[in-house]
Amino acid sequence: MNRLTPYTAVVSARYRNLLQYRAAAFAGFVTQLFWGAVRLMIFGAFYATAEGPQPMNMVEVVAYVWLGQAMLGMLPWNTDADFQEQVASGAVAYDLLRPLDLYGYWFARTLAFRTATTTLRAIPMMIFAMLLLPAFGLADWALPAPSGAALIGFLVAITAAALLSTAITVLAHISMLWTLSGEGVDRIMPSFVTILSGMVVPLPLFPDWLQPFLEWQPFRGLCDVPYRIYSGNIPIAEAASEIAFTLAWTVVIVWFGRFLLSRGVRRLVVQGG
Amino acid sequence: MSQIEVRSLAKVFRVAERRAGLAGAFRGLVDRRIREVHALAGVDFDVERGELVGYIGPNGAGKSTTIKILAGILTPTGGTCTVDGLTPWRDRRRHAARIGVVFGQRTQLWWDLPVIESFELLQRVYRVPAPVFQRNRDRMVELMRLGPLLDTPVRQLSLGQRMRADLAAALLHGPKLLFLDEPTIGLDAAAKLAMRDFVRTLNREEGVTVVLTTHDMDDIEALCERIMVIGQGQILIDGGIDDLRRRVGNSRVLIVDLEDTVSVAALEDGLRGVGTRDVRVTGRRARIDFDAGVIAPAALIARVTSRFEVQDLFVEHPPIEHTVAELYAEHGEGEA
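Above: the input entities. Below: the structure tokens describing the complete assembly.
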């Protein structure tokens, strides 16, 4: 058995488990469909009256919006309710009974949490946006098909985004070792994560003076990088360095998370959960 | 070398105390009053391979703290402890791979997964080679009669079923040391008996060392050759059941079935001057509490048979609950 076996087993068990929540996924799909339509109409109105060239054309914006609606669940905007309960009850100390690296264990669980519900919602959303909308005669509003190279670039970038999102969520989980409740982070995270990732407004549409800051902050790797690679707004030649950017931030956040966790565990084993 | 060696183990918790009232709450913001709680105040013991040790004490005496330290999920503030040569909290991962732990109050299984999937996940988590896993799994499924439950999600199991599954899960990686923290809590009589059977079989047939905490004295009497009693963070008694009884004196109960009903007064009258402690009568059965150090059981029996028509009689030890309660009282401890 290879070294990763325990961790991949945890991911797969938790993933399969979360796939059971089909009704919630369907509700999420309908909500996100509605919001996608609203956002597209706003951007449509904006582009119809805009003068001069914009940093993104309307086709690229449409792709950005639909991908965002499909992948919404993958943003690190909340924490795992299971985990919150574990912290509140003190059961979190019992994770130390497993012969596992604690960070690795939590990362594995969180990766499943971040991706399982997203898979359930993303697939119907993509089918709807790419295939059904043109069938309804709304081809202008449909998710355009990417080029082969852009698709590969997107798949790599979205995988990197999943790792980055997981690392950020694990960080939020670790913070609960001090706060003992997920409520605080659950309130704070959505506001800046949705804005800084580009989920609310695509980052290139922000004012120029903000761009240097937006370019370097980690949340860009969650939406902006993969969605723009998909639409070709980031040329495929630049995709590799953009993905490297996402992964570099992931490494930094994982490192910081491990550091915090080692402090948190010391508290945990001193106070006994 | 003993399997478990514990030397002057100490654990001090620092608890922030709240002051009463609003003013107190504000004062607490700037001037926190910290109270030190000595959960363990220098505990020493050894456990040999293959022993089955009962670890008892009132709530808050330090039982769970000890188990958590031995399991590696709590660090002590003083003293040393080795388990199979490893220090649990320093060599946590290697240690965790070698031991099994069951907490009666809390399942270690994955709540939503069917039992069998939990087992398969544990196989990978503990990196158990497939043939070993299959052997252990089949043995545990047979021993704990889990066959019909394997496809049921853990959350749908009854408490007794869940405890059996938990015990099996703790043993899949073939640990030679098992910690059981209140394994029979909340179980009905049949499930308790079954649980005791499993633990006994594991200990006798598989040679698994077991350290068991419980509030149920029947568990102790049914299972343990050795008992450690902890109170106020210290080991009060470490020995066999007989040691425990001897330690708190020579209390005995003589139970007599008489030919005819006798009043308490008549019975007390007949035993005047003998030195019995208490006499109770229900129907034709009399219970006479006495101290074997004051009057020898044989002498008391002779006296009773000489004065009354006796059908049957036998001498009993008092229930061990009483013994332990007396011990706690002696040490100013416990709510009992």
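Note for the figure: Chain B has a mean pLDDT of 85.
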